[in-house]
Amino acid sequence: MADLTPAQKRDRASLALNATYEIEVVLDMLKRGLPADVNCLGLAVLIRRVQDLNSVAMSVWGGDDTRPTDEMRTVVFL
Hints:
Elements: H1 6-33, H2 41-61, H3 69-76
């Protein structure tokens, strides 16, 4: 792969961050559509896990320097 220019790197990081926002919207829609039923508990847990992982990506690509790295590591390596 060719070396990316700083502008290309910024553009790609922006695309990744926008993708995380879209993922969050989709997950919220899925959660709202889930019936409050024990049969859907596994899916609800999976949705929550993806939300937690997505929040780490949002923090990194969004430049949230106040979120401790160790806390994010704990989320990722649960």
